[in-house]
Amino acid sequence: MRDTVGHRSPAHTVVREARDTDEARILEIGNALFPDYPETLDEFREFRARLQEGGYASILAVAENPTGEVIGYSHAHHMAGQFDPARYRMGVYTDPDWQGQGIGSALYTYVRGVLTTRGALVIESFARETMPEAIRFLVRRGFRETMRTWEVRLDLGRFDPSPFAHYLDRARGEGITIVTLEDELRRDPGALRRAYELHNAVVADIPMPVPYTPIPFEVYVRSTIESPRALPDAYFLALAGDDYVGEANLQRPAHGTHLYHGVTGVLPAHRGRGVAVALKLATIAYGQRHGYSEIRTWNEMHNTGMLAINERLGFTRQPAWITFEAALDPGEAL
């Protein structure tokens, strides 16, 4: 994306391509809007580097007021794991003190224009169901709902593992051993490649409105090992003989006393044996052992099996996140 002049918008605001020097201010706005999900500069940069390494587009624009202060930004990017060169995920964010003045509209118009010149046909966006203004913003621009994802949280201080011990016994009786990726990397030089192949297999089986596309190995390594949030000792694998048949993993944000739970998945031939619950119990035990207060995760509303497991373990539902998408007219880019 190249825009040296910028696009003038309401209230004499200029929308332009973001520079590296804008990143700290971008993070300040993002964290003000989503204080429950704080992000650091290192985490933000690592995410964009991961996109770049995977060959995915990442388009970042900012809005400036007449004094040159950044008062909003938009980030549009391809989605690793749901890659389509004509599909982008886009977020628009305005500083709380500048909302209601057309800044978000100007950012959306600018970035949409950039996307159409790149041949985009679909833009995906999102809003929490507790964000009516954001939902209206999207609906007015032709977006329609395609998916709801429940955020669920587990209070680790109140969790009692004893009622679930039989799941561990059952998994062991089925010949399943729960190991960590950290230990496996010491034991087997090929463990990372094998874990990557399992990851792609189990994620492909999760119900989603857009088909899964395998992520490149390099992107998986960056996320699993090199990310500031990575916890190889909290990346659990279910081992049946010499085969990896299931996974559950945690990540640690730089701020807060909570953990994020990623994928829990088991290969079809090993389901119904308590393996998924045994993996979840391993993540919970890790969080309790290391003094964390909470585990947070997300479940697509049609993934009823995992929703049932999480509810059985005591995860409580938070407001849902809604995914929207809008089709673009190919003629816009002409």
Q: What topology does this entry show?
A:
Blueprint: E1 7-9, E2 13-17, H1 23-33, H2 41-53, E3 58-64, E4 70-77, E5 87-94, H3 103-117, E6 122-128, H4 132-140, E7 144-155, H5 165-173, E8 176-180, H6 181-187, H7 191-203, H8 217-226, E9 230-240, E10 243-251, E11 258-266, H9 275-289, E12 294-300, H10 304-313, E13 316-317, E14 321-327
Parallel strand pairs: 5-6, 11-12
Antiparallel strand pairs: 1-2, 2-3, 3-4, 4-5, 6-14, 7-12, 7-13, 7-14, 8-9, 9-10, 10-11
Distinctive features:
single chain; alpha+beta; Aminopeptidase; 10 helices; 30% strand; disordered N terminus
Q: What is the CATH C-level name of the largest domain?
A: Alpha Beta
The tally of domains stands at: 2
Shape: elongated
Fraction in helix: 25-40%
| SSE topology string | EEHHEEEHEHEHEHHHEEEHEHEE
Strand content: 25-35%
Distance between the termini: 17 Å
**Largest sheet, strands/sense/barrel:** 14 strands, mixed
Q: Could you tell me the number of beta strands?
A: 14
**Cα-based radius of gyration, to the nearest Å:** 21 Å
Mean pLDDT: 93
Q: Unreliable segments (pLDDT under 50, ≥5 consecutive)?
A: 1-5
CATH architecture assignment of the largest domain? 3-Layer(aba) Sandwich
Might you state the CATH topology name of the largest domain?
Aminopeptidase
Identify the CATH homologous superfamily of the largest domain: Gcn5-related N-acetyltransferase (GNAT)
